[in-house]
Amino acid sequence: MSWLLAAPIIIPFATAVLAFLFRNGPEGRWISIIGAAGLLIASGILMAEVLAEGVVAAQMGQWGAPFGITLVADLLSAVMVVITGITGLAVAIYALADIEERLEKLGYHALFQVLLAGVCGAFLTGDLFNLYVWFEVMLIASFGLLVLGGRRDQLDGGIKYVTLNLVSTILFLSGIGLLYGMTGTLNMADLHGAVQEVENQGLLVVVAVMFMIAFGVKAAVFPLFFWLPASYHTPSVAVSAIFAGLLTKVGVYALIRMFTLVFTTDIAFTHTILLWVAGFTMVTGVLGAAAMNDFRRILSFHIVSQIGYMILGLALYTPLAIVGAVFYLVHHIIVKANLFLVAGVARRIAGSTDLSAIGGLYKTAPWLAFLFLIPAFSLAGFPPLSGFWAKYVLVKAAIDAEAYVIAGTALVVGLLTIYSMTKIWGAAFWKPHPGGLQPKLSSLAPRDRAALLVPIASLAALTCIIGLFPEPFVQFAERAADQLLDPSAYVAAVLGADEVGLTGLAALEVTE
Amino acid sequence: MELLIAIMVGVLVAASVYLMLARNVLRFLFGLILISNAANLLIFVSGRLTAEAPPLIPEGADAPLELVANALPQALVLTAIVIGFGLFAFALMLVYRGYQSLGTLMSDEMRLAEPKEDGQ
Questions:
Q1: Residue A259 belongs to some domain of the structure
Q2: Cα(A296)–Cα(A353) distance, rounded to whole angstroms?
Q3: Cα–Cα distance between A181 and A59 in angstroms, integer?
Q4: Is residue A334 a part of any domain in this protein?
Q5: Which of B76, B87, B113 faces A140 most closely, judged by CB atoms?
Q6: Full domain range(s) for residue B78
Q7: Do B110 and A169 touch (CB under 8 A)?
Q8: pTM of the predicted structure, to 2 decimals
Q9: Minimal Cβ distance to B46: which of A150, A159, A178
Q10: What 3-state class would DSSP assign to A198?
Q11: Which of A18, A171, A510, B6 has the fewest CB atoms nearer than 10 Å to its CB?
Q12: Is residue A462 part of a domain?
């Protein structure tokens, strides 16, 4: 049981060590792919177990629940780990053609695998301080990946990324300290009960807002997102893609986890803040994207705007809205990583990501145009692609909750998303190349072409499958949302079924 | 004692916020050291301070016999110090490299990744 939960963390770490040892040869990249495939298999087994058994929990080192470190997987954690495996494998294959030998020798594959381990750890842990540690593992790996190669714009973007993320880390840590001071426990399932006993509920809300800001920086919500558009377009394409797919989503996951499991004592206050944040995030992100003129920078701002939709689902806090948030989270990781991968191919064959310097891709590389259209339309919310269902569920939830303004905002932002997708389409695909170049996919070496296009095509196929057969996925999201809104199964799995009413400090006082 | 440390945390945070608002990235880093130490002290003090009572269990007993200091926040602080040290070393190195290749420490002048549009 515990191996099942630990495997998605151990496999990438072991792969990282091996990939580092073989970083000078071609073996490193294959080790990375095998490791990512292993992670996908392990996550699939974990998913099957969670689907069959309900919430799965294991105590590391055999220390009982509130005292030791717990690894726990409910449906949300499990699906996030699966999606990490899928994106990780896609990007590992893409890296075959994208990452230069120089970066491999600097240890790209090892850092990439440590990043995956950190992300999986953050999804699986059931302990708040352990979550902090996983965030750090993830952060330090992402710092390394971001500045790997040391070009000047990378260093520039890196400084902003590092400084702002370190501030958020400190806030997270302070929040943990204060929460521990109030409740005497850091186990998330234990906290669920312990926060009800806290006398000073006002202070609890203060701590909740500290967590909101700390995770908000990681998730890149308004007004804390400035590090993201400053840095995401600077590293290698494979790095941008994995960042865009996974990193901000860990912040969103942490927000969803904490604000459904722990900080539910003053929903009227905390979730109203989240609702405002969601609205502003959607609007500023999409407006920022409209002002940009670079393939990857437009996509970076769109990450921000799409994060708003997920926060919207959490903020409305109705069962349907949480379903929408979970569905959106899964759909968005696939689509966003894919768009960045397409941008990378466009840069390879047309020479740049600056929209004014490229063009003509539709005429000479129609397959790439087709592969761009699928995730782009899905992002904008065209039926019958995955984004349509995600947006549909969220807007429906907003209208059901009589939050018409935010529902309208979500729809308008969807329209503006189409605007910037058509801007990319018009500039990169339709207009002739300003340099008279005829960008062709056949200009790539066959091996590179396969490594670049197979992941893109697979992720696009996944988007279509979710879009054409949404029912099982929505049903799954419904089950996940049920677990989130009624955490009793989660708490029972972590603490044991015979849990007594007293938790945290109260339990300690009885034994004294 | 707890009040004293709480006030100290407040002073440290105030000083670090002042430093971090500076345009100079190096000052920002100094602020970062202060605020990470403030966070560590905060964890320490929120675990309640018990002076001169090390958390030792005498031989043959399963639990400490009398009230002892809370060992968990100390373990957390230790972890946080190690992680904070590593991250700070990285940040310092990054800023140094940035200074070498960008030629400036002023965050206003770091516009390579986000160049100003023409005509502004």
A1: no
A2: 7
A3: 23
A4: yes
A5: B87
A6: 2-49+72-105
A7: no
A8: 0.92
A9: A178
A10: coil
A11: A510
A12: yes
